[in-house]
Prior knowledge:
Low-confidence stretches: none
Strand content: over 45%
Number of strands: 10
Distance between the termini: 40 Å
Amino acid sequence: QVQLVESGGGLVQPGGSLRLSCAASRSFFSIIRMGWYRQAPGKQRDLVASITRTGSTNYVDSVKGRFTISRDNAGNTVYLQMDSLKPEDTAIYYCNKVPPLGDLWGQGTQVTISS
């Protein structure tokens, strides 16, 4: 069973950037589609970006043009480059397969956008 560990979150000012990483305990190359999800306080956990095994990406409208999802060739890490961050991007960010598997949820990484 693959285990996922998210990192890279932090506190940044509006307009700033962060790069999140999702490290897997072993290659998840066999997983067709991986995604980054986020959950803001009092809201449900939503998918914001995904990437297929072949590198095709998809984004929710609110992050298009600002976030970039990528994965390394070894298949062990998925990244989320976040630019032009806004206060509404504040959330805990998680990675998981798409659709998500309950056993794969990690602790997430907190992203806070505030001046």
